[in-house]
## 1
Amino acid sequence: MARIAVTPEISIDEAELAFSFARAGGPGGQNVNKVETAAQLRFDVTNSASLSEAVKRRLERLAGSRLTKDGVLVIFAQTQRSQDLNRQEALARLLRLIATAAEKPKPRIKTRPTLAARKRRVESKVRRGETKRLRTAPPE
């Protein structure tokens, strides 16, 4: 089977993709009622041999509600009027999602506010408190 390149390091086997087709709504006239143009792409993330565990975890997080309980990513494309274009769109969306998941997140470096920043914060709080104090009614 052919392999589809996602990134220079990652490629997925075409056999891991399952396409099914359904009737789509939207523009298309009588064609919409007769032809199954909407494409549904299913990709089993949890059992994929093409992806590393780290990429799988990030992909599962990115997929959100498109991921089933079984770990299958479902992408539904129906914006185009032809089956082939919807199939290509669904595949492109999957490849974009995997490419995004393949990027390693930059580790956060903890920083502390400078002494000057802490002083400015306290001064602004004091000024704000003074403004609010002046709004109260004068004592009798």
## 2
Amino acid sequence: MSTEDKRIREFAYQIWESEGKPEGQEARHWEMARKLAEAEALAPSKSPKAAAGKTAVKKPAAAKTLDGKSAAAKPKAKPAAASKVIPPGEKAVEKKPRAPRKPPAV
């Protein structure tokens, strides 16, 4: 088995696990994994050390707001929760809202 086949197998397994281990989806998982491995092979490879050492990125100075405080001091909004990846051709399942809890009987 070639290293490419091993990588495809790893990707297919990760896809299968991420979808809740469904049965009967082997061909679709394998095709998705093959495309991922192909894209990974075509992507230019850069080592983390080489990428970090070549270019120094300057950070812009903190902007001041009207009240004189730094814009960086303002609380940032929390990032949106990572949504589950839905393969092409499948519908997203929306969760129903939970009913409010009833107080315990006394």
## 3
Amino acid sequence: MVFDFGSEEFVGIPNFKGGEGHFDAKMHDDGRCKVIRGRIEPGSTSGYHLHEANCEVIYVISGRAWFDYDGEREYAEAGQAHYCPMGHSHAMGNASQTEPLEVFCVVPEHRVP
């Protein structure tokens, strides 16, 4: 299956997971896995949340991200990835005051009904 993110429009999700600002996403969700191309403007964040039934891999396409992972601050830039295993918590934000952050996320469900 091919997703053509280049021909899709971003959809703004305000206060994503309880965060600040909004998360712009091109998202595909088949109930078993979410595949997301995301953009986060300066000052925007996702809320801190627990991955109870899934994990998440976030690859930084451009910009610089911060992650609060199980209470510790980490940073990743273009070409690096952040991993949040099932049972762990994290939040994400744009570490730049001037440039947007672009990410690619994969969220596979571990407990499918």
## 4
Amino acid sequence: MSLKINELCVNCDVCEPVCPNKAISQGETIYVIDPALCTECVGHFDEPQCVVVCPVECIDPDPQHPESEPQLLAKLRRLQQESA
């Protein structure tokens, strides 16, 4: 499942640089996560790095984008092929 940044975001800028897929960017008012790029760090780390570094715990699973671990790994492989 992709992750989503909720309205508690304080724009502290710590999540964007730790995302291995560059799925996080500054939105209109808060940071946003592109579900097409988010793999919850599957294939990179044991846990999502944005969640690890977030000081206000504003990153939640996005129920509109449910994905299993195998689906997240497949997305990661596709992203890696596209960037090669």
